[in-house]
Design brief:
With 136 residues, this protein is α/β, with parallel strands linked by helices. It is 26% helix and 38% strand. The relative contact order is 0.19.
Amino acid sequence: MELTIQASFLPHDDPEAALAFYRDLLGFEVRNDVGYEGMRWITVGPVGQPATSIVLEPPAADPGVTSEERRTITEMMAKGSYAGILMSTHDLDGVFDRLQASGAEVVQEPMQQQYGVRDCAVRDPAGNLIRISELR
């Protein structure tokens, strides 16, 4: 059996801030931008990697989510504990410097981890944890 990851989903609460972060800062291309009933789903992905995408979605668009669950999601997003993703790059220091200069919330500067990777961590505008590891 062969499986690949086509898309991951991350919540956003401000589509323009999400575009500024993923498109303008990280350089991802916008592959789809769909609005429905005042909500927006924005699909982005790294240039040259058309099979891998991130769908930035409204955090509580599912009609089965209760008002209490929506409040919990909003609180978790504000704390940065709701969602995250791991990315990688050959130029960790360059990517980190660009993120830091943009004013992105730094969680961890580049460092060597005990488990063998060198990485850093920031939060996107919605509070999602973005860990970036260095490819060797």
